[in-house]
């Protein structure tokens, strides 16, 4: 059975020297991807509301609010910056059979703690490795979705661990930080069921805010239930059930996927497939009479109608969690990027009509294939004349079996930031991240201000 001490010891024992060259490279790619997405999200309404809330609550602080002119405490900076990373639903995902969290949710917290502590780039990499590893291990070994808890219940633990690393907490303080975070902040799955609201895109920001606050409390001597995982009425009794972990120096980062499209994780293969089919067959959307997607259980449950109506789509938060909308928009526009989530695009009759003929069903064979590491999808598009075109996908570009390397990630970074950041600063951000071992966290945050 996993213990609180086991997690705390892992945080203490994992340093930058323990990270392989491949892990370091993968973590830098995760950082570049997340920073680019954050820069693109600055004008979105919910992150703007977070910014206004943060600046209403406190004045100047030691940490950068990315893309703003103000600074704040590490707690509020973690909240604000994570909202930017997460809101567009373009972030990374960890693929486990029973849970699909977003390890990039940890980045805002770890960077804020690192900026507060005047940490080096080497220390930042160690903290990110800790957070990504714990997030992945919890997703794989202790899924909580079917028990009614949201995956950010894992994030508060992994972010508290990563923040503790950057703050330089000793073993007992780290144990207390994890204990406080895991005891007090277990989020409900209702966030992603029924009618999707804006909280879906902000839940992880709230989780990492709580994580950094827990670490700061522990830094200043507050103790928590030191047996939070293994104790009576503890996390394993109440939240997850018994589980074990096998923690490595960041190797779980290699199981993280990059989103090629602005879409919920489980939609990636299906979206790629329908765009390929539309382009190859030059499909006329006006002649389409039916779209059928066969998919795996998780996709059907979360974005295919298993946890609420996915045909009533009126907002961005609803659109990026609706397979019918995503497939209809992708077929119409031959793309699924930021433009497909503009309010006027969502409301347009062509996509609203087409999404209603999308049928999503679960295939048990595809579920088994997903649990064995694929992300399968089978799509049939039927035309007015009775012709049916089919595409079958095992995975997508960006899946761990077909990862996007530096060239592809830098292209994505350029695409999402070119209207927000000048070319010179974009180059500087890339260079700092690529050479992080020779930099300080402040070198990066200065460029993100």
Give, in order, the helices and strands. HHHEEHEHHHHHHEHEHHHHHEHEEHHH
Overall tally of structural domains:
2
* Count of beta strands: 8
Tell me the CATH topology of the largest domain: 2-methylcitrate dehydratase PrpD
Radius of gyration: 21 Å
- Identify the strand order in the major beta sheet: 6-5-7-8
CATH class category name of the largest domain: Mainly Alpha
Domain MmgE/PrpD N-terminal: 6-246
Family: Belongs to the PrpD family.
GO molecular function, one term: lyase activity
Domain MmgE/PrpD C-terminal: 261-437
Description of the molecule:
One of its GO terms (molecular function) is lyase activity. The protein has 449 residues and is of the alpha+beta class. The protein has two domains: 4-258 and 409-448, 2-methylcitrate dehydratase PrpD; 265-393, 60s Ribosomal Protein L30, Chain: A. The chain contains 20 helices and eight strands. The strands form three sheets. It has a four-stranded mixed beta sheet. β1 and β2 (71-72) form a beta hairpin. The relative contact order is 0.14. The mean pLDDT is 97.
Short descriptors:
two-stranded antiparallel sheet; 51% helix; alpha+beta; 2 domains; lyase activity; MmgE_PrpD_C; MmgE/PrpD_sf_2; 449 residues; MmgE_PrpD_N; 20 helices; globular; 60s Ribosomal Protein L30, Chain: A; 2-methylcitrate dehydratase PrpD
